[in-house]
């Protein structure tokens, strides 16, 4: 059975890791380079670095910070935020990223997914999706894709499930599905959304938005059928350690990777 991955997420704003609730009211969580080194030593399977205001500020991602982070980690590193072209992807991969994540740019120019996959391989292209539930109570579940979620969330009119299917057809090798409703609340992932997308695509789906306790990660892997879980607050503020979460999930029968500790 394939092992499941635990992925801490570094949301970076103005050179600092932050975490908010539904993208607002950010709390400072520390220095990204120091946190990256900490998670590398703590048994994280991968690490995600998002420059969360690069797209909304219409500026390039902080290459220098990415380079510093990459020097501290020996686990796969995904970088996103402000990546708008194949050249941007190349710059991030040269800076030390193993994968690049695109969101707003993919909505504005879906061809970017295919172009990136052709040049670097689908395994390097991650599609990050910010989705919000739009159906009224009692109606069939439906989610809309949003862009520019760092400062100015904009609805795209795209159905989240249909968008997921399309980006995989274009060459995305992995999907990060972030629930805007659950993000930062600590109340659990949107497992209905995760399961709906997981049933429609043949690439790994990563749950994002809402982790507050290990039981939430378990539910995302079971009910949401996710292949990996991304979390921020529960790790950044010391509520749980990566190792403790892995121990809990392993005890529930979830296959976990055990990263060898450096001697």
From TrEMBL:
Its EC number is 4.3.2.10. Heterodimer of HisH and HisF. It catalyses: 5-[(5-phospho-1-deoxy-D-ribulos-1-ylimino)methylamino]-1-(5-phospho-beta-D-ribosyl)imidazole-4-carboxamide + L-glutamine = D-erythro-1-(imidazol-4-yl)glycerol 3-phosphate + 5-amino-1-(5-phospho-beta-D-ribosyl)imidazole-4-carboxamide + L-glutamate + H(+). Gene3D superfamilies: Aldolase class I. This is Imidazole glycerol phosphate synthase subunit HisF. IGPS catalyzes the conversion of PRFAR and glutamine to IGP, AICAR and glutamate. The HisF subunit catalyzes the cyclization activity that produces IGP and AICAR from PRFAR using the ammonia provided by the HisH subunit. The keyword Lyase applies. It comes from Herpetosiphon geysericola. It is found in: Cytoplasm. One of its GO terms (biological process) is L-histidine biosynthetic process. One of its GO terms (molecular function) is imidazoleglycerol-phosphate synthase activity.
């Amino acid at each position: 059975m394939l092992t499941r991955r635990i992925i801490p997420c570094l949301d970076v704003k103005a050179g600092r890791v932050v975490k908010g609730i539904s993208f607002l009211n950010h709390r400072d969580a520390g220095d990204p380079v120091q946190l990256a080194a900490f998670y590398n030593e703590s048994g994280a399977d991968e690490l995600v670095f998002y420059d969360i205001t690069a797209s909304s500020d219409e500026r390039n991602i902080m290459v220098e910070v990415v380079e510093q982070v990459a020097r501290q980690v020996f686990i796969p590193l995904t970088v996103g935020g402000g990546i708008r072209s194949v050249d941007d992807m190349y710059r991030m991969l040269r800076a030390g990223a193993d994968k690049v994540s695109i969101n707003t740019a993919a909505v504005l120019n879906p061809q970017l997914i295919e172009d990136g996959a052709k040049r670097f391989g689908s395994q390097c292209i991650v599609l990050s999706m910010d989705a919000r539930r739009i159906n009224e109570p009692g109606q069939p579940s439906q989610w809309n894709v949003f862009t520019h979620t760092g400062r100015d969330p904009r609805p795209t009119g795209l159905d989240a499930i249909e968008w997921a299917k399309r980006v995989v057809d274009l060459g995305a090798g992995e999907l990060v599905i972030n629930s805007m409703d659950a993000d930062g609340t600590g109340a659990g992932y949107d497992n209905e959304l995760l399961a709906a997308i997981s049933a429609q695509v043949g690439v790994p789906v990563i749950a994002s938005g809402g982790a507050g306790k290990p039981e939430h990660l378990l539910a995302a892997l079971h009910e949401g059928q996710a292949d990996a879980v991304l979390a921020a607050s529960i790790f950044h503020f010391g509520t749980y350690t990566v190792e403790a979460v892995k121990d809990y999930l392993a005890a529930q029968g979830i296959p976990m990777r055990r990263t060898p500790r450096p001697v």
